[in-house]
Amino acid sequence: MKMANSLRGEVLSLYKNLLYLGRDYPKGDYFKRRLKTVFLKNKDVQDPEKIKELIRRGEFVMKELEALYFLRKYRAMKQRYYSDTNKTN
Amino acid sequence: MAELRALVAVKRVIDYAVKIRVKPDRTGVVTDGVKHSMNPFCEIAVEEAVRLKEKKLVKEVIAVSCGPAQCQETIRTALAMGADRGIHVEVPAAEAERLGPLQVARVLAKLAEKEKVDLLLLGKQGTFASQVTVEGGKLKVEREIDGGLETLHLKLPAVVTADLRLNEPRYATLPNIMKAKKKKMEVIKAGDLGVDLTSKISVVSVEDPPQRTAGVKVETTEDLVAKLREIGRI
User: Fold this and answer.
1) Which of B65, B116, B141, B190 has the most crowded Cβ, counting Cβ within 10 A?
2) CATH of the domain at B211
């Protein structure tokens, strides 16, 4: 990845963070493989503006993942521990 | 501004998404090699403590866990979420399995005294808070009861347990986990606190819940009503 040093650092951080976040993603290896594919696909991008846009997209995916994990967990807890209140609705 | 100190107890449990299996010898559930994480309700308690600190209502958040060495991972997660320091009450794995609520309560009580804690936040148990604020040196807690909301004022020190709807816990991201490694983690033994961990309860057997019996299909509404009358539902 040939680009300004600071952007390179940001991209690497983003990749590491997404990798860490992706450990809890269901469907086994799916997320990890897709993450690698997508990053490799964009490895020759040079334009700093385009790179920043891609970084923002990566950060958006991170937010989406956090929301997904939260919803799954919330729903599971609600079903397991609050099922008696559901029945009255 | 506020000099309040909060203690949050966090428990390392089998991850909520894992399918739990009973051991063949029926002495417990399979835990070896199984993914563990912080109890989701403990996460809510940690989040609330950290939010109180961010609102400058609490000065310091201490995360505590009782159990074997792996508990430190759970404490580390609490630190990554914003707790200031951790205390690991070391209990060997075999003994930890038999640790009951009473023993843990004694540990927490001794720690609360030792660390001069004003507020203890815990995961869900019984009645729980859906909103917590500090007002004039007292704790203002809102909780859901049958028929609505109840607002309570509590003198400090106080113990509060967290409801599912209290907040949305933040995810402990990798950079925060890394930063958490620099935070202080104290390791002590229950004996150091003068707490006796012997349990008067023993586990007799652990079994799977009964299989769900198959449903019954009926042809007409009359049949349905007849069936319901039969089993005494109407």
Assistant:
1) B65
2) 3.40.50.620
